[in-house]
Amino acid sequence: MIAVKRVVLDVLKPHHPNALEFCQALSAVIKGSTVKVTVIAVDEKTESLEVSVEATLIDFDLLQDVINKMGCALHSIDEVEVKNEPNS
Q1: Of 23, 30, 52, 80, which is most buried by a Cβ count within 10 Å?
Q2: Considering just the CA atoms, what is the radius of gyration of the chain in Å?
């Protein structure tokens, strides 16, 4: 099995939810995850974020679904780390 272990994303987010609520929502759907959000830029209506997610197994479709449901837009996948885990 090819397991996604780490992703770094470029996300455009409205001011609400705030960065803490956004980070907690992402972490809530990925078991055992560590989520780091860095606000890169702020304008009148949005914030540009660098989002780093690390876990034993990241369900990227689920992660993207949560991002979309919070009114955010995934601009790019900037880094990915995967591991080939035989017999998983």
Answers
A1: 30
A2: 13
Rounded to whole angstroms, the Cα distance separating 51 from 39 reads 9
pLDDT (tens digit, 9 = 90+) per residue, 18-72?
Answer: 999 999 999 999 999 999 999 999 999 999 999 999 999 999 999 999 999 999 9
Q: What is the CATH code of the structural domain delimited by 2-84?
A: 3.30.70.1340
- Structural contact between residues 3 and 56, judged by C-beta atoms closer than 8 angstroms: yes
Contacts of 84 (CB under 8 A, 6+ apart): 1, 2, 3
